[in-house]
Amino acid sequence: MRMPLFAGIAHRMHDNLYLLFRILVGFLFLQHGAQKLGILEGGFAMEGFMGFIGLCELAGGIALILGVFTRLVAVLGTILLIGAYTTVHMKGGLLPIANKGELALLYVATFLVLFTFGAGKASLERALFKKELF
Q1: What DSSP assignment string belongs to 43-91?
Q2: Predicted model pTM
Q3: Domain residues for 123?
Q4: What is the mean pLDDT of the chain?
């Protein structure tokens, strides 16, 4: 039986596309951490709670890029971003576009996908341990 064009491409490419998705999300997430830590400006500052959050985002992004502890990072990232949305963004109103929280909610959705599918076939965790640890 013949598959529709896009279904066939998606089926053939799903491992590669998911790898690209995981790496891209990790790269973007680590940039948020690097920004909070002052790394993007050429320094390093671990200031209070935001420094801790920045460190978590940086480490989580690196873990996603490598494909280690993907589900754990997804759970912790979801908790972190729901917390950020409810404590910071919702003060600006209910609608995400108005309170500038759409990126936080988009990351929550992204982390739900990562939690569901894990590290995928092309991951350091799978290469080293032949399975996912979490």
Answers
A1: -----HHHHHHHHHHHHHHHHHHHTSSHHHHHHHHHHHHHHHHHHTGGG
A2: 0.89
A3: 5-129
A4: 92
